[in-house]
Amino acid sequence: MEERVKFLAMVGAGAVLGSVATVAILKLLPRTVRKECLGEALQSNGLKNYSYPGKEHQGTPNPDLLTDEVVSEQLTRNIQFFGLESQEKVTRSYVVVIGLGGVGSHAASMLLRSGVGRLLLVDFDQVSVSSLNRHAVATREDVGTPKALCLKKHFLSIFPECHVDAKVTLYDSSSEDEILSGNPDFVLDCIDNIDTKVALLAACVRRGLKVLSATGAGARADPTRIRVADLRESTNDPLSRSVRHRLRKDYGIDGGIPVVFSLEKPKAKLLPFKAPSGEEENPSDYQIVPGFRVRIIPVLGTIPAIFGQIMASYVITQLAGFQVQMEPIVNFDMDHYRILHQRLVEHEELLYGTAMQVQVDVDEVMYIVKELWHGRSARDQSTNYVGRGMWRSVNELMLVRWDQTKPASVSNLVLLRFTEAGEHESQSLEDIQREEPEFFARVTSVLKRAKSDFGL
Question: Domain THIF-type NAD/FAD binding fold: where (predicted)?
């Protein structure tokens, strides 16, 4: 009898402690989540008619979202990275993601996990079994579900405070206003159809919306060759080439759009289309949506996922106002940097009678040329020449001192064409500052970055 009393006492004490702990935890949760938890508990006990708010979100993001204890804890690593004020910019932002396959689903997922306050998810397609090798959240239970609704369902369990809207629709001229209205802070183009992609990018340019576009992620395997650059600089990518041509031809748009692309040449081609009989047939005869491919592009699932992660990282840092220097696309090899270093030495000997003031080696020349000046003259930072055009341009470039009274160091060298170098050395810095204040300020800012990078 005594043992039974002890046992009941222990059970009672455990129940009390459990109740106290549960109440304490619930008090830490946001009000909407707390109601959801209570509602689910009541439903599991037979109270089927209980309903709880918070499943559907409308309107603009809550500007005070980070004052919520659970939300601030969930985003604490971001807050530590950006600072509270910058993270608030992210939380107040509105981003549209169009195309929710391997690239778009991962981009949208990390935007959500990073605290973006409002998301619009757009895709007309459904989750298929073959989607599962690259989709961010889809499971076998989601097969047959529209991709937009699939993401929204999962997102509500990850960050329910986000205003998630899902549209199961195809982007085209008839849906443009519905999708792009509301003044989004960023639009992510994760579409793999050329006609739709070109129309979307042109609409964003026309509306003055910030847009980031993903190019071909299929048939690639090397994650180290993925880059972010202007559309004009993307190379080895057939999709980029077609988009550039169409934007220029149909809309007069010649660059100015950042894209995520791979420098790697595709490792495989579209698989031949075979009908159920096994015979090869015309894919166009089987299109559900005109203009969209039917044949399958071989895809290593990790690569589109990395594309999406890069897109999310780019957008989040932009929204937070956090400066990130993307690696420039420079098609030089070490021989080119050795040539530029030798030119610098010879020029110093010719001009000053000695090369003793040259304080950079070939590796530092590579940093100066690639990271600071992006392989272009300091007076011409446009992207008019890429690929082999850039490779040939090295024949007319040289490094010279910015301030002739100081040594040729990593923080005092500019890349100029031969003719520009002669003109530069005939002027004083005071003349340049007075006559070309914008150019002076830009070069000074770049060289200041070099000082910071090298701890000078």
Answer: 76-334
**Enclosing H/E stretch for 168:** none
Distance CA(88)–CA(63), nearest Å, equals 8
Q: What is the pLDDT of residues 133-186, one digit of tens each?
A: 999 999 999 999 999 999 999 999 999 999 999 999 999 999 999 999 999 999
Reduced to 3 states (helix: H, G, I; strand: E, B; else coil), residue 165 is strand
Query: What angle do helix axes 238-251 and 194-207 make, rounded to 10 degrees?
Result: 50
Express each pLDDT in 212-233 by its tens digit. Answer: 999 888 778 888 889 898 888 7
83, 175: one domain: yes
- CA–chain centroid gap for 96, Å, is 13
Are residues 258 and 212 in contact, defined by beta-carbon separation less than 8 angstroms? yes
Range of the domain at 246: 65-320
Tell me the CA distances in angstroms from 91 to 36, 78, 83, 297, one per residue in order.
Answer: 22, 11, 12, 36
- Least confident range from 74-83, 223-232, 234-243, 386-395: namely 386-395
Q: Are residues 302 and 437 in the same domain?
A: no
Question: Same domain, yes or no, for 87 and 182?
Answer: yes
Task: Identify whether residues 114 and 175 lie together within a single domain.
Answer: yes
Determine the angle formed by the axes of helices 2-28 and 31-44, rounding to 10 degrees. Answer: 140
Q: List, as one string, the DSSP characters of 183-205.
A: --SEEEE----HHHHHHHHHHHH
